[in-house]
Amino acid sequence: MATDPTGLRARKKQQTRAAISDHATRLFLARGFDKVTIAEIAEAAQVAKMTVTNYFPRKEDLALDTHDEFVQLPTTTVRDRRVGESALAALRRGQLAEVSARNPLIGFSGPEFARLVTGSPALSARLREFHEDRETALADTLAAETGAEPDDIVPRVAAAQLAGVLRVLFTETLRRTLDGQDDDRIAAGLTRLTETAFDALAPSLAAYAVRAGD
User: Fold this and answer.
1) pLDDT digits (tens, 9 = 90+) for 61-71
2) What are phi and psi of 206, to 5 degrees?
3) Nearest one of 149, 164, 189, 150 to 88, comparing CA atoms
4) Are residues 161 and 139 part of one domain?
5) Which domain holds residue 78?
6) Closest by CA position to 35, among listed 12, 14, 63, 10
7) Given 63, 89, 110, which residue is the final one in a domain?
8) Tens digits of per-residue pLDDT, 85-138?
9) What is the CB neighbour count within 10 angstroms for residue 80?
10) HTH tetR-type domain: which residues (predicted)?
11) CA-to-CA distance for 88 and 105, rounded, in angstroms?
12) How many beta carbons lie within 10 A of that of residue 53, not counting itself?
């Protein structure tokens, strides 16, 4: 049976990228983000310094290596919503499912990683960019799903509200993690807060972007 060289190269790249990120994270957790250099990461991962920067042009993304997944999580939930389900209802359901799964993408990162991110101005700034990119992606998705005109502000307003709630819940998860709460206690609290937060948006968004049947 012939081997697919393209597939092998892709897997090798994924393995190299993951190995670099793993070594970087261990160094960051041990010594702090700002005290670790790219050269030290390259040495730990046994690759050239240029290899590190080719995979990770920004040092911050060595620690926050989930940009695409983070940004796309709510947009995927909206695109895959059920018939008769609004964007608000889909995101509520999705958030509750992620809380139940203790998904790191919504803040279940553990105390060491939470301290790493919140203790570094550079990582905190990069995380804010993640949230901003997610809001933009969600606005684009809502515009496409509702057939909005380019100058229609409603998808952007809706995205700001929805992404804002997700951001508040993410920040609350980090706060509770830093306070020493375990994941089960955090999840119980976040379940209640998720219901409260999405209920607050219901008057304006309960009927917005409802998926029509075929």
Assistant:
1) 999 999 999 99
2) -60, -30
3) 164
4) yes
5) 67-205
6) 63
7) 63
8) 999 999 999 999 999 999 999 999 999 999 999 999 999 999 999 999 999 999
9) 11
10) 14-74
11) 19
12) 15
Cβ atoms of 67 and 126 within 8 Å: the answer is no
Distance from C-alpha of 41 to C-alpha of 62, rounded to nearest angstrom: 10
Check: CB of residue 163 under 8 Å from CB of residue 141. Answer: no
Please work out, in degrees rounded to the nearest 5, the angle formed at the alpha carbon of residue 60 by the alpha carbons of 92 and 182.
45
Distances (CA, A) of 161 to 111, 127, 129, 154, 164: 28, 18, 17, 11, 5
Amino acid at 6: T
Residue 212 lies in a domain: no
Tokens of 144: 């496409």
Predicted pLDDT of residue 8: 85
* Pure H helices in 32-66: 38-45, 49-55, 60-63
Question: Is position 210 within any domain?
Answer: no
Question: Which residue is listed with tokens 């897997």?
Answer: 11
Same domain, 38 and 132: no
